[in-house]
């Protein structure tokens, strides 16, 4: 939301699947997601970007000149310009990320915290990367396995990265075995601490940034 409260930016991850069916959305990797803008004065909704694959977290820049949107299943973050000379344009903010980005939040350094809902093992086996190239295997999995079974194959490795205002990597925090935090969905900085939320765990973790 803009500081004056007029514009609200949000994503529509899929025109087919509801959010509770996120496993099916991830497996299908359809490109029917959108980034939208709601004007609280005119009550109008406008589509800013279409053709996105599981658009997820959204964050407006401190200067309110662009909006970042996480394209989860593509392991990248897109940028859409909402003001200035580039208004109406879009580009890639960061791609080929080490995990699948979920929510994006501002950091105190002027950059962005990005929570990774799952990692892309390198070197190693990444199920989502593997399945993205083999749609016939995905069809079999849809028929044989439940979403709860599928997610058991996703590593519990937790990862949060901090990006600069230009999209370069500043630092990262890891929990390789998911002993403290698993399936991270958001990292929110407040008063010297980083609060970590999860799309599966029923609790919030807190990291003291002065100790790292």
TrEMBL record:
Transmembrane segments: none annotated. GO terms for cellular component: endomembrane system; membrane. It is a single-pass membrane protein. Keywords: Glycoprotein, Membrane, Transmembrane, Transmembrane helix. Residues 7-84 form the Strictosidine synthase conserved region domain. Coiled coil: none annotated. GO terms for molecular function: arylesterase activity. It is found in: Membrane. Belongs to the strictosidine synthase family. PANTHER family: ADIPOCYTE PLASMA MEMBRANE-ASSOCIATED PROTEIN, STRICTOSIDINE SYNTHASE-RELATED. This is Adipocyte plasma membrane-associated protein. It comes from Python bivittatus.
